[in-house]
Amino acid sequence: MSKALTKIKVEDIVVANQTLKDVVVKTPLQKNELLSAYYGCNIYLKREDLQVVRSFKLRGAYNFIYNLPTEERAKGVVCASAGNHAQGVAFSCNALNIKGVIFMPSTTPRQKITQVKRFGGQHVEVVLIGDTFDDSYGAAREYCTKEGMVFVHPFDAYPTIAGQGTVGVEIMNEAPQPIDYVFCSIGGGGLAAGVGSYMKSISPHTRMIGVEPEGAAGMKTSLTQDQVVTLEKIDPFVDGAAVKQVGHLTMEVCREVIDDIVVVPEGKVCTTILKLYNENAIIAEPAGALPIAALDFYKNEIKGKNVVCVISGGNNDIDRMQEIKERSLIYEGMKHYFIVNFPQRAGALREFMHEVLGEHDDITRFEYTKRTNRDEGPVLVGIELKSKADYLPLIERMQQKGFPYIEINNDPFLFNLLI
């Protein structure tokens, strides 16, 4: 791909901003006093979670579909999405009065599926297929070819990237002072490529920091290897950013406009989601929380600076909150699972409860793995600690009292099998 094709022109982003001015919500750029005080800088949150479809994806989807020739619009459009792009396409189809067929992974949170149907109304059909975005993507492209319809790419298309770049226009228009850093989540790379293109054109000194989940770091891997890499396996938890392959165009653009990429563990993202909700009353989806989760990795560099974090979406299914809490506790070292082999002696269970567990340790799960003999044998035990510091004393007491154990947290196979 030539360098001429890898640049997103700032004038095209400005035109997209004009196209979208009566369609999208001009989301606020809010200074967050709690985060600013904690990190010793000025942190502004670009609240795309307050967008009409609760994510930035409407911008790129509408700009793409709006710019289609009349004859292509008439055929209808097809897309594949884990949720947010689907909502943007659905809203656009309804607004522009065209047909849309939307392919989504079967693992998509129910809340996102419901929203897609609501925004699209009678204009859209939802097809659930596969376990990941990439599964749905393959099925959607096949359908597109078969039916002669236009595929609306969620990230790897010029009009889509230009539409996402309008987030950058609003940031620059609303910023009360020069911006030193912009933290932006990366899934396929459309948002980072668009916002980065605009920011670097208007404010070259601003450092663009992309943020990816540890279980799907496709852009960092691709840039490191200097080619688009298809990841063999991904963790689908951060569903808005969990793609096996980033875009070819987005990678080339990100190579030019992204200064660094931070990779954040999924557990850290969960802790951030809970803090945003408890301390700021902000409901962020995992991909939306990525930029704020990355701040700890840049805490020295951003001191005294002006920082923008793009909260890219707020479509978080409440049914996932227990899993989010669980992942957070495990990441923070306060939730541990063991298979404990109870000794063959009377009172062993009582001894474990009174002499092994600490004063503030709570048993959250207790399950015999051999149901024929409950007086002895292995037991699955989940223990929640009040403090991370309580972990080593717990381990020492189990060893001193003669309770052999296997820690499941450290064994991915057993953890996925039993937990």
In DSSP terms, counting alpha (H) and pi (I) runs of 4 or more, how many helices?
18
Oligomeric category: single chain
Give unreliable regions as ranges. 1-5
Strand arrangement across the biggest beta sheet: 1-2-10-7-8-9
Which key features would you list for this structure?
six-stranded mixed β-sheet, 419 residues, 18 helices, disordered N terminus, alpha/beta, 14 strands, 18% strand, four-stranded parallel β-sheet, globular
Question: Could you characterize what this model shows?
Answer:
- Strands 1-2-10-7-8-9 form a six-stranded mixed beta sheet, sandwiched between helices. The chain has a four-stranded parallel beta sheet with strand order 5-4-3-6, with helices on both faces. It has a four-stranded antiparallel beta sheet with strand order 12-13-11-14.
- It is an alpha/beta fold.
- The protein starts with 9 loop residues before the first helix and ends with a helix.
- The chain is globular, with a radius of gyration of 24 Å.
Give a nutshell description of this structure.
This protein has 419 residues and is α/β, with parallel strands linked by helices. It has 18 helices and 14 strands.
Task: Chart the SSEs and their pairings.
Layout: H1 10-20, E1 29-31, H2 33-39, E2 42-47, H3 57-66, H4 70-75, E3 77-80, H5 84-96, E4 100-104, H6 110-120, E5 124-128, H7 133-147, E6 150-151, H8 158-164, H9 166-174, E7 181-185, H10 190-202, E8 207-213, H11 218-225, H12 248-257, E9 260-264, H13 266-280, H14 286-293, E10 306-311, H15 321-331, E11 335-342, H16 348-356, E12 362-368, E13 377-384, H17 391-400, E14 405-407, H18 412-418
Parallel strand pairs: 2-10, 3-4, 3-6, 4-5, 7-8, 7-10, 8-9
Antiparallel strand pairs: 1-2, 11-13, 11-14, 12-13
Helix pairs in contact: 1-8, 3-5, 3-8, 5-6, 8-10, 9-10, 10-12, 13-14, 13-15
